[in-house]
Amino acid sequence: MDETIRVIAAGSAAGGTGQTSFAVNIAVELAKSGKKTVLVDADAAFGDGALFLHLQPHLTLKEAAERQDSSRIADYCLKHESGLFLLAAPVRPEFAELITADFFADAIDSLRQTFDVIVIDAGTGLHALSLPSFELADQIYAVTAPGLARMKNTKLFVDTMEALELKEKLALVSVEQKRKAFVKPAEAAVICAAERLVVLPNAADELAESMETGVPVVVSHPRGAYAGAIRSEIRHLFEPKPALPEKLRKWTKWKEMKRHEPARKAAVKESDI
Ligand SMILES: Nc1ncnc2c1ncn2[C@@H]1O[C@H](COP(=O)(O)OP(=O)(O)OP(=O)(O)O)[C@@H](O)[C@H]1O
Ligand SMILES: [Mg+2]
Fold it and tell me: Which domain of life is it from (predicted)?
């Protein structure tokens, strides 16, 4: 197992792309696999983590920040029946600005002492808590969805990660689309120049049911395609990666590029039509 993955952050350039669904299900699946996992809801103004898990937080990031209690932040985490812990976002948007980037970074650092893995729902856009989230993360996900504006903003988001020298840790996450007019995940990866792409199946029904029941899809439909994609991504994340000498690392990268070439060509061909 690759034990270097301790912090995972999922963000997006535009709202409603499915990033909370992705973060919740990745986190619950990690907890199911026996890793002590906490989901941190860093969507400080409009976080939905507690809603997705049907938890009613009496303590949130807001209370911890007010008391400057970063060293005891684990006491502010609520336990879900799946075994996952949640550090909830404040219950009202006006409390968001009480949580500073410095306090948040200290809190994440402190969570490392209690948890094996910390999954951060970094919310939408680039705000006070998303930048420390991405900087502290070992794996960043940029979740995107169809629509010209979303695609333009996702590209800007990925470009910004490159400017901040964070792009090496980034994978693009995109949901499969049935409608012909929509940008396909492989096309999105080419447009955004993302080095790695995670494709999620369309799971509208399972996710809608999950919102009603508070039972994450990886628990309610473990054999479904969405849960399968989540498990496959976790396997990828934690599979042992051999330390290669610099020369071989470039060779491996070249082979990776060649492996993605058919998807790139297909994407270009489709967009030509
Ligand atoms: N793989 C998927 N297939 C189909 N629908 C999805 C998928 N992922 C998410 N959705 C749906 O998209 C909507 C938004 O999902 P979610 O709340 O996870 O997105 P978000 O990016 O966190 O949104 P917000 O900007 O409100 O925080 C929900 O109705 C959800 O069920
Ligand atoms: Mg969300």
Answer: Bacteria
The answer, yes or no, to whether any atom of ligand 1 lies below 6 A from the CB of 268, is: no
How many degrees, rounded to 5, is the angle at CA 7 between CA 24 and CA 166? 110
Task: Confirm or reject: Cβ of 89 under 6 Å from ligand 1.
Answer: no
| Ligand 1 contacts CB of residue 204 (under 6 A) | yes
What is the per-residue pLDDT across 204-246, written as a single tens digit (0 to 9) for each? Answer: 999 999 999 999 999 999 999 999 999 999 999 998 876 766 6
Q: Distance (Å, rounded) from C-alpha 190 to C-alpha 25?
A: 26
Q: Are 170 and 140 in contact (CB under 8 A)?
A: yes
Q: Check: CATH 3.30.565.10 for 7-241?
A: no
pLDDT at 16: 93
Task: Give the burial class of 85: count Cβ atoms within 10 A of its Cβ; 0-12 exposed, 13-18 middle, 19 or more buried.
Answer: buried
- pTM of the full predicted structure? 0.90
What's the rounded Cα separation, in Å, for the pair 194 and 176? 16
Query: Which atom in ligand 1 lies closest to the alpha carbon of residue 201?
Result: 1
pLDDT at 90 over 90: yes
* Domain coordinates in residue numbering, the chain: 7-241, 245-273
